[in-house]
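Handout, tutorial session.
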Amino acid sequence: MATLTDEVPDLAAIHQPIGDLFPRPDPSDASAWIKWRLSEDQVAHFHEHGYVAGIRLLDDAQVDALRAELQEWFDPNHRGRHLWYEYHTNESSDPNTVLFHALGAWRIKPGFHDLLWNPAFVVPAAQLLGGPVRFWHDQLFCKPARDGGVVAWHQDYSYWTRTVPMAHLTCWIGLDDSTQANGCLQYIPGSHRWNLLPITGLAGDMNAIRQVLTDDQWQRLNQPVAIELQKGEAAFHHPLLIHGSFGNRSDRPRRAVVLNVVRDGVTSATDQPLLEGVPPVPRGQPLGGRFFPLLYTP
């Protein structure tokens, strides 16, 4: 059995790709990066509705490589488990369902580490952020077949107010085909223009958010858009966009990796650690250093 003392290098010390899973052109050759740019219509859709979806980020070989790395982590005794910021084999509040949720995969396995520098990710992220892309943190959300749990309606920035200003972006990447049957992402278009809402729970009652919504907002919540994606496709969304996902009752798993980034210059709003086990970034100081690398400057 693996132990906490098993040597696993912390890949957070390496601020560049360490393998060749995600080939990158010469950074000085601007023309070689153009193919990953979003169209004007896609950028406009993001600003109008709060999201843009169906962006191809991974090919089949890259998906397979990430799936292979992910599989080991479902065993709570895996090597490197001390490197997670958070690790929940089941964060669901319903004992009859399962929601695997973990933060910090980039520190443990080379594929998830190098994913941060994937040109197909950083180029559109820079467009949507309007500037250089700095890493915030990653997440894994996995729903097993038949008894996968829900991710309740929420805004990402409700959990991130320890950083300011609000210049954040979320990228949700499917490692399986994601459909309504297996609990795909659901968005409330235009809700990125709503006020910042209190936290009402991430892995419990889908209706818990009702207590903090106006009647009009509640009506809008009952008209979600299902974001069905093929494996390797992604959706980018605004930090205030209301989103969630229903349970998985299908015979297929629904696995996803989420990359959360900020525009370079976002600062700490606290003297407490921003992530579990990470040294504090003093209040007012910009994110940087070992755990918050700069990923891309357009």
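The second record follows below. Compare its token runs with those of the first.
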Amino acid sequence: MSSREVVLARVRRALADVPRGEGPEDPPVPRDYDIEHGSRTAAETIDLLAENLADYRAIVHRTDAAGLPALLARLLAERGARTVVVPPGLPDHWLAATDAELLPDTAMSTPHQLDAVDSVVTGCAVAIAETGTVVLDAGPDQGRRRITLVPDHHLCVVRVPDQVVGSVPQALPRLAPDRPLTWISGPSATSDIELDRVEGVHGPRVLEVILVGR
């Protein structure tokens, strides 16, 4: 008996008690599991997000809406950023204080051109406190996925508390499955068999997350 026949035989045995004509969506599936671990206030959830982002080696900043332009300008200046990729829907005032050259996110940009860019600034779709994860869905203030995968420095703005949830199950209803989702937990990194960490392998070497209050 071939490997293929062995696998198919196991599938048939597993489906032996399934009524003919029953589809995957027909049996009711209980969804009564806990969607969040413990009980937290909004402030505690934001603190947990900041803690887990830092644990993944993201650099976390906090400010209010009025202080965001000055903070972005300072962080870009400290990085020596001369060019910044900007999604089409990023609020204009966010980068009004920077002297860097703002480059639009266009379909014509090549990976080589994006690799030469110093930084990228985006918003996000949602941030997950329990996992320290920021999720992008190619929304107007986030742009194409590749602009956050090629440049070496990513500044991501998270509006708190509106864009922060406690857990992955709470985040999923906010995301459309037909959109290109990018789940980011810290800067891009990998480790070899000896656990030597290398950052910037398949995305930004430096991730800075700005938690912006009202």
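Points raised in discussion: Residues 40-213 form a domain with the Rossmann fold fold (CATH 3.40.50.10420).
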